[in-house]
Write a structure and sequence with these properties.
alpha+beta, three-stranded antiparallel β-sheet, elongated, 2 helices, about 15% strand
Length: about 50
């Protein structure tokens, strides 16, 4: 399966799965959702 919005690059965040062009680890987004933050709250509080 190919992901278009998730990158794995050893030069970006130590090779962690990140959201393309943002250097935000996927694990961070998953943790925020696990703490019951809404998508709107995550977007509002994430520096883009």
């Amino acid at each position: 399966m190919a992901f278009k919005r998730i990158i794995f690059n050893p030069d970006v965040m130590g090779g962690q799965a990140c959201i393309r062009n943002l250097c935000i680890p996927v694990a961070t987004i998953v943790k925020l959702i696990a703490t019951e933050m809404t998508v709107e709250e995550i977007l509002r509080n994430t520096p883009f």
